[in-house]
Amino acid sequence: MVDESFGFNKQENKSNHEKIDEHIEKGKAIAGKVADDLGKTIDDIVVNLKSVQKDVDSKINEYKDSSISKIDVDVVNKDSVYYLVADLPGVKKEDIDIEISAKELTIKAFFNSICQNIKDECDGVSKGYDYLIKGRKFGKAERVINLPNKIKTEDIKAEFNNGSLILVLPQVEVEKVKINLD
Question: Where in the numbering of this chain does the SHSP domain appear (predicted)?
Answer without folding.
Answer: 62-182
